[in-house]
Amino acid sequence: MICRKTYRKYLLVLLGISLLVLGVYDYFRERALIPDSYTQTEGGAGPETPGFPVTAQIQESVTKASYDSRNGSSYRISYRYLGVIPLKETNVQVTPKTTVTPGGIPIGIYMETDGVMVIGTGKVTGRDGLNYEPAFRLVQAGDYIRSVNGVEIREKEKLIESVEENGSEKLVLGIERSGRTFEIRLQAADTENGYRLGIWVRDNTQGIGTLTFLTENGKFGALGHGINDSDTGELLKISEGKLYDTTVAEIHRGEPGNPGQVAGLIRYRNNLICGQIQENTEAGIFGEGTERLGDKLDGEAVEVGYKQEITEGEAWVRSGINGEMRDYRIAIEEVKRNASDVNKGMILRVTDPELLALTGGIIQGMSGSPIIQNGKLIGAVTHVFVNDPTKGYGIFVEEMLSHVS
Fold this sequence. Notes:
- The structure is a single chain.
- By secondary structure, the chain is of the alpha+beta class.
- It has helices spanning 2-33, 156-166, 291-296, 353-359, 397-401; strands spanning 37-41, 54-59, 73-81, 85-95, 99-102, 106-121, 124-125, 131-132, 144-148, 151-152, 170-177, 180-187, 189-191, 194-196, 199-215, 219-222, 238-244, 246-252, 261-266, 273-281, 284-289, 302-303, 313-319, 326-335, 346-350, 370-373, 376-385, 388-396.
- A hairpin with an 8-residue loop joins β18 and β19.
């Protein structure tokens, strides 16, 4: 009898633990299914309310923001598990139906950094034959030099000139590091080539990408990801930048382990400027297009599709990489509506035989190519899988539009 009671207790404990584990699993499964944020078009339906065991309640106190054609209104939905346990809160942004003109054209990019960016430090050889490292442990990669002896500088040529004029005297550099500003004092080394700080710097960058969209009021979005410094890996802070017409000169096909790329010709002439870059963000580059940019896009405006509308299956990527604007067939294999990385909201695969023959899939320079599904612009290509160039990531277009006013 005692053994039977002990056995029953053991079974009850085991059952309780199993139910608890299943409950915890179901809790986090349901939580993952609920979007972190949701964009609702004016007059459209909001997020679907899950069934049992999840309940939802709209927080009316957040709906007080008045609607306007630019920002819309917003509200919050509070979800509970079994009607009691807090599960998640979703912010819902209500916006008017938005139309944009898809891009797909290659663009030349030139940007100037906001200050002189440090990419590293090193030793220099003085006139006496000894090695010196004036900036050792004072300056580090990713810093921005803002001033010399209190005088603002923006170009590396001005930095070199200021150091040379200062000679052997100690000078003061104004530094910005991770949003914090401070000053350092150091002394340049006297070398055969002049006075040197042993600091390697950059004040501009350039390259080729793809335009994603142009709005009705002439704002553009491109790339779908930010431009990072090639040496430090950090997002570049820019003071200004320009888009230029570019000509695709050569296409290097992608292969497993060896991503391909677009080789282009950019002519930095004022009459070839087609946009002013105002922002470099994790979601792409943004700014004001010129009339020239609008003339280059001959397609019709399409409605924007938000992430809740995206489905796995057939879609299209628009590209003018071969000199002719075309929509190429792709397959969306996974939609990550709660992705932590803004640039990796979708996983896609190129299936169009013509694009595969031309590029091998996704190659460098195609970043920003518009993704279209069911006649709506839903996102842009961002990155390629190094070991499988037929596959890559995409960003949701709403992430890009959040940077356009």
